[in-house]
Amino acid sequence: MEDLEITCPVCGEVSVVLAEDLEGLEAGDVLECEACGAFLEVVSLDPLELEVTEGGLEGFFVDCPRCGYTFEVSEEEEGQAVSCPECGFSFVPDWSEVEEEDEEW
């Protein structure tokens, strides 16, 4: 078994799960994102699926509609266009979706 790269659904940072850790991993186990501290529960192993159980960084996060990069936006930007730090695409986030995601945590 090889090391596996996973992308945190909260902050978008990539972490590596070592092969020896993957061997002992079971559904229901919880991983912590090294970048933002979010707790990610293992939903399934094949393929590896993770679900956010506790939020890490607090704030509003959106996914860029062009490249899919997840990044934080501030409340002051509500209703205004934001630019993706990854690809530079400008768009107005759908704040109803942002608030729904925030309520899940």
Automatic annotation (TrEMBL):
<dbReference type="InterPro" id="IPR005906">
    <property type="entry name" value="LysW"/>
</dbReference>
<dbReference type="Pfam" id="PF21344">
    <property type="entry name" value="Zn_ribbon_LysW"/>
</dbReference>
<protein>
    <submittedName>
        <fullName>Putative paraquat-inducible protein A</fullName>
    </submittedName>
</protein>
